[in-house]
Amino acid sequence: MDPIINAVLKPKSIAVIGASTKPEKIGYKVVENLKKSGYQGAVYPINLEADEIMGYKCYPNIKDVPYVIDAAVVTVPAKIVPKVVQEAGEKGVKGLSIITSGFSEVGDHALEDEVVRIAHEFGMRIIGPNIIGVLSNSDQMNASFANFLPLNGKAALVSQSGALLIAMDAATYTRRVGFDKMISIGNQADLEVADLIAYLNEDENTTCITLYIEGLKNGARFMEEARKCTKPIIALKAGTSAHGAAAAASHTGSLAGSAKVYEAAFEQCGVSQAQDLNDMFDTTLALSLQPMMKGDNLLIITNGGGVGVLATDAAEKYGLPLKFAPEELQAELRKHMPSFGSAKNPVDITGGAGLEGYYECIKYAYPHTWVDGMAVLYCETAVTDPQEIAEAIYNAIQESGDFSKPVTVSFVGGDRCEAAMRWLIEHDIPTYNAPDLAIKALTTLRKQEQMLQTAHNRPYKPTDVDPAKAREIIAAARAKGRDALTEVDAKNVFRAYGLPVTATELATSEEEAVRMAAELGFPVVMKIVSPDILHKSDAGAVKVNIKDEQGVRDAWKVIMENSLKYKADAEIDGIAVQEMAPWATEVIVGSVNDATFGPTLMFGLGGIFVEVMKDVTFKVAPIDIATAMDMQSEIKSAKILQGARGELPRDQKALANVLAHYSYMVYDLNDEIAESDANPVIVYEDGKGVMVVDARIILTKK
Ligand code: ADP
Ligand code: MG
User: Fold this and answer.
1) Residue to mutate (ligand 1; options 534, 535, 537; most atoms within 8 A of CB)
2) I want to staple 628 with a disulfide (CB 3.0 to 4.6 A). Which of 358, 366, 424, 659 is the partner?
């Protein structure tokens, strides 16, 4: 655990720089909140005139305090912040929370940089600026201007929005979702989300990390820390419009948006994405209170057929379809329900079943080896008391002595149910007012387990690559003043990274083209080679299925003519003569550099699938072979690759190999390649491989 970050988040002593005697000031609020929250450490208000604030002795300058100070909370106006940070550094303060706003969020980057520079000179770290502060139940510390500590619990919130943090703080009481900590990170001038993930992963009072994110400073660091984190992370990402995606010169550029890239990145590093605020609370409740789900066997126990069916639907929708319980388990459960009940799964103990039915069934089923996770549903009835049922559920779980698997509960009913649900939550059992929410929570616990398993796999690094060769080709193109590679050059770069491309020769005269075609063997394909004509068919500069010498001569003339018609001053290297790949399933692979996460890989089926349906999927590069297989099943048209309508399955292994190599190429050359695509790539029947027939690389601006 980083001792400096620890000193900021768990200080033994705090100076409030800018403490005020005026109750309407933030500098007063912070001191008051520290007092109200029962903070046990020393508090030193720094104020030029006052003798004491709220019973704490004041000092005119932090350097006048004769004791050691761990952290300083800064509330003075922005202009004075550099000065007080300097003084805090000279005093030997370890870290700062800077509440003051008026920095990069209003465009003043210089002032913010200055403050960070001074802090780092003294080895201090900063949370903020532009924050609410830090709140921690386990430290009885409200070092913020939010009015009170959140409902006590085990989650930790890291929020980029201050206003939302204050609202969530209050909402914890009505939603009954408990947090140990709430940390406002504001502008992330110094400490960023990634640092807090690393810290909270080691914090004994945190079981689950909840993030509200508007933008990350460094996507790669975020992914790295999230990958290392062994606690579940749930993130709500706001602001899904494209930011910083490079101008869309390629297909991938126009299809990539920051929302899709965030979604991919979260998945790749094991972060569950919340759909909205409700989802964020609901998921936090389950992730903070329950262990992860280690297998797919979900058992539902219900007293109502209706909620049982809704839950069954939800289980399928969220990817954990129900299976029938084993016969032996069913036989035992049948003993505790009327003859018209069902022990299959959902286990319907029927409306007539009282607390004994729940108690006996749960006590037997919950610790059963077949069961990996359990949802208990209850519909309010005339003959049962929700509170008694709640207690029966709780007691059965307690007495089973097994706490290794998750359980969630849903009560549907009126006020009596509300009270019983609160009671269950207070006893660490996530309880929801709709059956689908109880199921969704369990499926997230399952997904978390699966993501944590795969997220730990380190990205792939192939060995059959020749980066020096690729860089040589790129350097030569740059030397000619080019900002894009021709297909011929791009294919050579692809080849250097182990990608299968069609044999391609560059002809600079008609005679040369004739000779090359004969060498390659007919039929051949001919295409213009020009850095100024990136979409060659649009210019009428691609001729396929050329069968003989006369065909080559005709194609030469037509391609040259069309190219010059398309762009009179086009720089032309010549015409590519290439082997004609037999037709099969067409896919597209591409990349674009995302402003936050760097190079990202796109994959989809070619033709109308990409043009019309935009059926593509993204990953942050590089990816391994397993992830490359996942990409192929993530697209809606996945069945086509798997062999739909009597067709043989395509060579998905060879395609995975191409995707992984491609992702490594764009990752490794990310300083050179801004965007790229292989469109199309032809995928043959299983065992027969893959062929890249077109290649496009747009270079980064240098
Ligand atoms: P562009 O995308 O610049 O218009 P392509 O190189 O993709 O040019 O060529 C256009 C189309 O021609 C491809 O989508 C593919 O259908 C076909 N094609 C191109 N090269 C080959 C080849 N070597 N073998 C088979 N078909 C090809
Ligand atoms: Mg193409």
Assistant:
1) 537
2) 659
